[in-house]
């Protein structure tokens, strides 16, 4: 009678989980930098530079009055920028302006 061998572990179920060995994990951690981590998170490459800043708002009033608005300041390189804004409103029950 031969020696019984342990059964093979079952294959992992299909899905989006990726399992790394200890060596693979260590290789990733050893080659990681602050810049590569920021890029993986979708952050700007030059962490010291400004990003897009802005604000949004909304209003709700009587007689169906409502609106939404916003503005964003976008840096373009070292010496340029763009500002984008929007406004959409509806004033119910009376005419806007004179």
Report on this model:
With 98 residues, the protein is an alpha+beta fold. Helices cover 16% and strands 29% of the residues. The protein has two helices and three strands, in the order ααβββ. It has helices at 22-30, 34-40; strands at 53-60, 66-75, 81-90. It has a three-stranded antiparallel beta sheet with strand order 1-2-3, with no helix packed on it.
Structural Rg: 28 Å
How far the N terminus sits from the C terminus, by CA atoms, comes to 102 Å
Neighbour order of strands in the largest sheet: 1-2-3
Task: Report the total helices.
Answer: 2
Outline of this structure?
By secondary structure, this protein is an alpha+beta fold. Helices cover 16% and strands 29% of the residues.
Set down the secondary structure blueprint.
Layout: H1 22-30, H2 34-40, E1 53-60, E2 66-75, E3 81-90
Antiparallel strand pairs: 1-2, 2-3
Q: What are the salient characteristics of this protein?
A:
98 residues; alpha+beta; three-stranded antiparallel β-sheet; 16% helix
